Amino acid sequence: MGRPPCCEKIVVKKGPWTPEEDITLVSYIQQHGPGNWRSVPKNTGLLRCSKSCRLRWTNYLRPGIKRGNFTQHEEKTIIHLQALLGNRWAAIASYLSQRTDNDIKNYWNTHLKKKLQRQNGITNEDNIDMTEMSSCNNNNNNICTNSKRIANKGQWEKKLQTDINMAKQALFQALSLDQPTSSISPDLGSPKPHHSATATYASSTDNISKLLQNWTSSSSSVPNTSSLSNNRSSSTGEGGVLDHQSLLSPNSESGSVDEKLNLMTETSIFKGVSKPIVDTEATTDDHSSLSLIEKWLFDDQGMVQCDDDQEDLIDVSLQGKNTDNNCQDVF
DNA sequence: AAAGAAAGCAACCGCTCGCTG
DNA sequence: TCAGCGAGCGGTTGCTTTCTT
Predict the structure, then answer these.
(1) Residue A111 CB closer than 7 angstroms to strand B?
(2) Closest nucleotide C1' to the C-alpha of A103
(3) Tens digit of pLDDT for each residue in A212-254?
(4) Residues with Cβ within 8 Å of residue A106, at least 6 apart in sequence
(5) Closest amino acid to nucleotide C15 (CA–C1')
(6) Rounded Cα distance, A239 and A62, in Å
(7) Of all protein residues, which has its CA closest to the C1' atom of B8?
(8) Where in the numbering of this chain does the Myb-like domain appear (predicted)?
(9) A139 CA – C18 C1', rounded, Å
């Protein structure tokens, strides 16, 4: 007996979000903070399910989200964590503070999975699920450790969660230090995105950032959105990408994306955001403070030294198997 | 240049979990 | 203890864009 849909009784709009809706939602959250999603459609007049509002905010409008190209380091982290945790995207996303679980999930399904399969020479016949593959013992013991996990899921997860929480902060430091230029400023020195969608993501975040900044620095009145209605030529999959440039005051030109994001994250209204935002203080910390969790993630076998060649991915995936065994000991 | 195929991504759906009364 | 509710998560879908022929 499943629960009824959360918005069963009201007419809800579906499909891509419009700029107007984005603005309404952002404006509301700016005033009331994220959370209490049930009340969002009621109070804003949005014809959207509360779930949809939460998703939109969490995945696209929330400040501090990094979109676009995944770095090699992020790829490796995802691959390794996926081998370790399975398709627990939220848990994986907690290690990549600027990425959303949805983003990681999509990236895994569209890029990494195929990449690993290609590199492992997996054919269609033996195209087994990568999660299964990576979580099973490949030694003489045929017992899949995943099964054990399932059996002990409750305890295992509690311990895992504890470890995650304890290690998260330290891991952020390590990851940030390893990627000094990539995590926040995708537009600086990084290769041009290979297709427009990627660029659009970046600009989406940027634009929304500007939008928010504009609001935080001005009165809390909701801007007139009437001029927005034609900004979106088609409903896009571009993330409800606003052509926010047209929405913004001319002053919005000033300041980098980073500055804008930082400004927003410092805005009190966003301090209750569920997902952690990279602590810029932490990133400037001591290089040597690698955590246990990082060692756990990047343990031996030269992973840390990996460059950007594809062999790394094979290594990582294989390590995933081994690490999975190690993981049993850890937990 | 056009059509079809493939890839990529945003959003939805259904389920589970945790909190509260 | 249990039921109701809201929030969160992972799988899936369907639309848009890009690539190939």
Answers:
(1) yes
(2) B9
(3) 555 444 433 333 333 333 333 333 333 333 333 333 333 333 3
(4) none
(5) A237
(6) 13
(7) A110
(8) 9-61, 62-112
(9) 42
Q: In whole angstroms, what separates CA A192 from the centre of its chain?
A: 20
**Is residue A47 a contact partner of residue A41, using CB atoms and an 8 Å limit?**
yes
Residue nearest to nucleotide C14 (CA to C1'): A15
Name the DSSP class of A307: -
With 0-12 / 13-18 / 19 or more C-beta atoms within 10 angstroms meaning exposed / middle / buried, residue A125 is exposed
Q: What is the pLDDT of residues A170-208, one digit of tens each?
A: 444 444 444 433 333 333 333 333 333 333 333 344 445
Cα separation, A92 vs A86, whole angstroms:
9
DSSP string of A209-275, one letter each residue: HHHHHHHHTS-SPPPP-GGGTTS-SS--TTTS---GGGGS-GGGGSS-HHHHHHHHHHSGGGTT-SS
Q: How confident is the model at residue A282 (pLDDT cuts 50, 70, 90)?
A: very low
From CA A246, how far away is CA A231, in angstroms rounded? Answer: 8
Selection from A97, A93, A58 nearest residue A270 by Cα? A58
Phi, psi of A122 (to 5 degrees): -80, 125
Contact A206, A300 (CB under 8 A): no
The Cα A322–Cα A265 span in angstroms is 39
Q: Which of chain B's bases lie under 7 Å from a protein CB? A: 7-17
